[in-house]
Amino acid sequence: MAIRNIRMMGDKVLEKTCRPVETVTPRIRQLVGDMLETMYDACGVGLAAPQVGILKRIVVIDTDGEHPHILINPEILETSGSQTGDEGCLSLPGKTGTVTRPNYVKVRAMDLDMQPFELEATELLARAVCHECDHLDGIMYTQHVEGPLRDVAYQEEEEEE
Ligand code: NI
Fold first, then answer.
1. How many CA atoms lie within 13 A of 161 on its CB side?
2. How far is the CA of 113 from the centre of ligand 1 (A)?
3. What distance in Å separates the CA atoms of residue 48 and residue 51, rounded to the nearest whole number?
4. Which of 66, 75, 132, 157 is catalytic?
């Protein structure tokens, strides 16, 4: 596995609609492994393939550091409720903004064996599913943000230096 370069907001690749995965080739497996490693390395809770420059409908999410979710060709089937809170993106480091999302989502996706499964998510996981699925359609959270973007202070990193 390898850490890939994360594309930053303004890169046109983040504005494109991604193509569905037809078959999970060894290259796709490698990509998914690299996406997980890249997400953990950047201390993110989710990453979509276009963020590493690949226009395929693949997202990885891990909101608690213990349960990685790999979603290939994800489709949101149901949403309900709403939550309003801060959101950020590895493609726009150092910034956060207020976004309202559903508090519950049911998503259908394929796993690495191209077997379909459904995931029900609430709270942060629901937020992450919505955020990452948006990336597959070229949408950044900044398009949903309420009010101004704010700077995030990375205190822990500063203390280490
Ligand atoms: Ni993002």
1. 5
2. 25
3. 6
4. 132
Written as six digits, the tokens of 130 are 């919505």
Cα–Cα distance between 79 and 77 in angstroms, integer?
Answer: 7
Residue pLDDT tens, the chain, 161 long:
799 999 999 999 999 999 999 999 999 999 999 999 999 999 999 999 999 999 999 999 999 999 999 999 999 999 999 999 999 999 999 999 999 999 999 999 999 999 999 999 999 999 999 999 999 999 999 999 999 999 997 665 555 44
Ligand 1 centroid distance, CA of 6 (Å): 10
22 is a catalytic site residue: no
Distance 65 CA to ligand 1 centre (A): 17
Q: What is the Å distance from ligand 1's center to 37 Cα?
A: 16
* CB count in 10 Å sphere of residue 113: 7
Segment 38-71, tens digit of pLDDT? 999 999 999 999 999 999 999 999 999 999 999 9
